[in-house]
Known about the structure:
Strand order of the largest sheet: 2-1-3-5-4
Mean pLDDT: 93
Structural class: alpha/beta
Distance between the termini: 93 Å
Largest sheet: 5 strands, mixed
Low-confidence stretches: none
Number of helices: 23
Strand content: 5-15%
Amino acid sequence: MKSERRPFSVLAPLLLAACVGYAVWAASIGWHNTVLDFIGFRQAQTALTAYFMVGRPPQLAYETPVVGPPWSIPFELPIYQWIVAGLVTLCDTPLDETGRAVSLSFFLLTLLPAYRVLAWLGFGREHRFLALAVFAVSPFYIFWSRTFLIESTALFFSMSYLAAALPAVDKPTPGRIGAALLFGVVAALVKITTCFVFSLLIVLYLARVWMDHGRDRFRPTMLCRQGLLALLLVGMPFVAGWSWTRFADRQKALNPIGRHLMTSAEVMHNWNYGTFEQRFTPATWGAILLPAHFALGHGVVLALALLALVFARRRWRSILACLFVYPIAPMLFTNLYWFHEYYSFANNVLLLAVVAIALIALLERGGAYRSVGLVGVAGFLALAVWRHQEHYVPIQAHNHDELNAVSRTIQHVTEPDEVLVVLGCDWSSELPYCSRRRALCIPFWMDPSLDKVPSYLAMQPPYRVGALVIATRWQHFDRAAVEETVRRAGFEVQYHRADEEFEVYVVKPARL
């Protein structure tokens, strides 16, 4: 047995190292492309925020200058953006590549708290490395960890929260509780929806410990202890998250468009939660489960993992916990999960955990089961590599430079401190970020009509409008009518046809 385990103890860390190396190489494909490769709306929003942080001290009311002044419409605590902007400021590195590098680094750092969770679960050292290899090579996580998004940052702090909180439940020392509180609060501030998934796992374990105490669980001392632990480990992070949301909403309320982006606004409520009917529509769950298909390499992998567990039942509690928690966040934030593939970054890791635990359960059983488990590990890794090459590499390799022409035109005809008024692009940050300009982008759910243009151009000092940009694909106006409207608003106007989809009207105050 010793001779059988010895080479395995050497090969397991080497396998993990190879998987990490592959993940870095696979993520580097298209590294210098624009951030508009997939869901550019959100990537550009994060990048625009980071761009206007470069060279400036951190601010809680940070700018995301896309819906006009005042420019602050905060969503998450921008730890990721601060780090990116700080590195760009100190090292003078390109912003897009720096954002990708920070995101990928947080993904790889997540392996550390994940290792601690696996150790807490009682897995042997070699088996922990195998489980981490399954995570590291997942095509879904490789792709989304190289985007300009906060997802990997949120996952790192949430996983660290879990790794600190579970031992704190077992032995609630001040140090353990303090570490869990620190990571939990930061996780909730970075992204509350990701923190929510991991807090559910902590609640489940608190409930299990309480149930395991039998009759003692109803004693006042036990109830107080468990209640206080739950309040500290779960309640405090969400108090912090709630406080941040209140602060962010107060900042948004100062902006005429930002008011519609508050958590209490009807637009955002519908956007975050969706409708009751949406939760029970097959098409909705087909879209929500599709990222799991890419995370696992194929949906059948999960079924095979559950089948494997039938023959190695030792780890069924951990499997059941992951399967129970996985659908709760999509059931609550249905529209977000339906519309944005990257939201599954928070809970697809649970399905990967199911696969990894099932495979390890086979290895732990030994004999022929061990051989099946090793074949399963090799099969998963091969399938994951194939899936990434087949599905995500074409996305990464294609450089979406469609906005280059209009961005160059805008940079040529406007000054860096001038503001764009943009119609026909919703409130997307893509054009403002590519142009490196502040903007007032009129959302589709507002009034992007020509009659409103004079009020949009009436920017208060110290800001002034430099150009009116119209995306003709979604918003078409007669050129003569636009020019007449701009002149009546007190501006001189000069027309530029940037490309097939954008018209740029340079606007300057009329000379007296």
